[in-house]
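User: Show me sequence and structure for the first protein, then do the same for the second.

Assistant: Starting with the first protein.
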Amino acid sequence: MQYAGKSGGGWLGRFLHLTKKSNAGPLTAVSIGEHISDCLQGTAAVSMRSLEEFALPENTETWQTDLAKLYARSGSSLGRAGQDTLSAMQRIRKLTETMRAEQKNANRNTAPNEFTDGLELIARLIQAGLGLRAATIHLGGWDSHYGAAVSLSTLIPTLAAGLSTFASRMAGDLKHVTVVIMSEFGRQVAENASFGTDHGRGGVHWVMGGGVKGGKVYADWENHGMEKALLTYPSDVPIVHDYRSILGSLCQHIEPTVDLKRLFPGFEGTPLGIYG
């Protein structure tokens, strides 16, 4: 699902490559965490855990001024890229100072967590106007083969709090952004002997943001519900939509001319109409 086809790179990396902008900045794609997400493989993505990581080893005003003078002498694409990167670093440094001041004066109602903080970082990067087009973040722990009630009682509120924080931070800017929550596999309906659930076929994607026709479940629930007679062997929710129908709808909403056959090699379906 991260690669969405047999071509090289991840689906999101391919999308960025197929819709590349001539004025793309140094932060076109970001993975929050230690590693770049598989779906972004094949593009110039940056992985970071905090804004402090996007800096030069000797991040001083004099050092950056000297580098800017060197890049300014070059009229090539390298010179322009260097100047754009240094400009982005200056804006990020100002953004970092603002975030530190806010955190110092903040009175949190809930304990901070990496997922919520990561989503807030993404929102800040979007609003900073750094040219960010795609960002990924990972929330693990859903592979609940045992004690599902215990793990989910923490994970579901964590996911909800992170999305709520992101939406609040974005405010009116959310209409220009789409958030997709996806998992690598579904779960079986029947509980196993360890009070958990094993790997299943049908799963769920959640989508929110600008233009999404929300407030509904895009499935024929009467014929594809969780009643035993409707399940597939051994106790799987049947697959109603190919996940590429969802991602394809998203990608065409952002860039209507994108070639879905190149984006998802081997996919013969049609985009799901989740946008108004």
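Switching to the second protein now.
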Amino acid sequence: MSAPDNAELLAVAVAAARAAAPELVERFARGAVNVTSKSTDTDLVSDADLAAERTIRALLERERPDDAIMGEEGDDTPGTTGLRWVVDPLDGTIDYLYGHPQWCVSVACEGRAGVVLDPIRDELFAVAVGQAPTLNGAPLPPASTVEELGSALVATGFGYAADVRAAQAAIVARVLPAVRDIRRAGSAALDLAWIAAGRLDAYYEHGVKPWDIAAGVLLCESAGLHVEPLAGGDGLPQGILAAPAGLADELLTLIGS
């Protein structure tokens, strides 16, 4: 069997994300149950997360049985093809549990293709590397080209552990006076999709996991944005920054990592 091209992998990612969406939307409407905590009391997982990941894994195992899978809620599955799927079945669980419509499904074939699906708004952000990113099949609106930090709408996110939040608060205290405003919406994958689509000017966050950003980073890179890992340190885990090239250095200086 010939190796799949990126467009073929994107089709699988789209199918996987869309397969998980109906149950997530239905549970969102009636309220998720069986909520438990993970790393801290504020890091929650629900039956909706688990059901969505099972649905995605089942489709991937059917369509791409020899590929590896990394999911937020399940064990890593090894593969033999050199391809790995990175899955966040429900990014923005806290928003989801509180009834805030800022959550999504993120599915990526690492380094090759990815989708961020917002079922509530019926928006599918998609990219196959080597092709232009799309929103619901149409060209993605252009990303920001802002070069003045004072004109930038900057998104970020916060961790679950109190000591990490304290370090993140110190960074926000430096960034907020220097930018147009800060947004903290609660879904890293959607933040990245929205900056790729020009709805935000920049995004940074410490403590993101591979499944949070795998699809979003591909979208941002394909949209021509500067994407750079954040090293962390001084109580902060590693992170990611995405911004227009003309804004990145100044924002990195403020963030300090």
